[in-house]
UniProtKB/TrEMBL annotation:
Protein name: Agglutinin receptor
Xref: Pfam families: Strep_SA_rep
Origin organism lineage: Bacteria, Bacillati, Bacillota, Bacilli, Lactobacillales
Segments of skewed composition (Polar residues): 73-82
Protein species of origin: Streptococcus pneumoniae
Start and end residues of each stretch annotated as Disordered: 61-91
């Protein structure tokens, strides 16, 4: 009788522990799925931005032999020393 009661008590404790583990797993899975969704969104944005960058780079490469374009693709920073005819104005 005592062994049966001890086993019932242990089973109840194990069931409670299993429920707690199930809840933690469900919370972790929800958090993981949210992070995966954010990753997928960020990846799609990155791919779109990279495609636009690659297209702009290809266009710059194709026009580098034409008059009025740089001989190599470069970023256009606000460095007035590289453009001596530039005029600084602030509106």
């Amino acid at each position: 009788e005592k062994a049966v009661e001890d086993n019932k008590t242990k089973n109840a404790a194990l069931k409670a522990e299993n429920e707690e583990i199930k809840q933690r797993n469900a919370a972790a899975k929800a958090e993981y799925e949210a992070k995966v969704a954010k990753y997928e969104t960020d990846l799609a944005k990155y791919k779109k931005d990279f495609a636009a960058y690659a297209a702009a780079l290809a266009e710059a490469e194709s026009k580098k032999k034409q008059d009025g374009y740089l001989s190599e693709p470069r970023s256009q920073s606000l460095n007035f020393k590289s453009e001596p005819n530039a005029i600084r104005t602030i509106d």
